[in-house]
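Batch manifest, entry 17 of 40.
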Amino acid sequence: MQRNDCLWKGVLEHIFDDFLRFMHPDADEIFDFKRRRPIIFLDKELEQLFPPETDDEFAVTVVDKLAQVYTRDGKKEWVLIHCEVQGKYDPDFPRRMFSYFSRIFDKYGKRISAYAILTEPFLKERPSSYTTEFLGTKLEYHYNIYKISQQSKAELLQSNNPFAMVILTVLSVLRNKPLDDDALMEIKMELAKRFLAMSIPKKKIRTIMNFLKSYIHFENKENNHTFDQNLKQITGRTEAMGLEELILTQREKLGEKRGIEQGIERKNREVVTHMISKNLTDEMIADFANVSLDYVHKIRASLKQ
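Output type: structure tokens
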């Protein structure tokens, strides 16, 4: 369980933006992912709130990630992710979720969006709120809950979100326990084929591949070689190649083509923008830069915004 806990912490940190997009389809309209305002993970701050060397039952080891994110209007917000990797559900879990919220809110005074990702194999519904009431005083706290065992494999396979591939990896294990190496081989090959069909950045490919390799591991290490051989057959390569290397090679080829296209687009835009600054007519600019008149109109309109 400690190994899986570390895997979850690592993968959340590397694809946190994809996690938010997965949970909220309109995330790009809410959060600022593109204006050089990085997501900041507050591990040290969590250690101060939940000292690991004390007997505090809310030690930092049970809180996976606290992230500082920016909204598109420039405001700082906090996102709390608690990944419950234990196989047995704790009935006191809702109260713990409220305790995390309460301590973090007391310290920062910021809005908080909290999530619980449950990796237990059981389908039973779990509470997504904590309520306490006494003599006319009532507290009701709600948080987001995502239970992997209840998810649809078919829907996840249709997603192009890297975090969906992480969920698929875990779900494949939960749905097929107990697993022998033959079953694991089939699962890993199925996931590998899905990865090959995706178009995502190189760093994120490494992240989900590392998660796959570590989360689904063969008891017999020789099966790692068999896995590479099976992969060679479905890709038609003449030599064995590790899955991550193969995916990156294919993505690099696609990236080179896109890079050339983006370079041409960037150069055209620079030329058109410069000529617009010289007060030339759109017709003259289109003829000189060898671009369409509509393209010149779009560039001119964007400069006025």
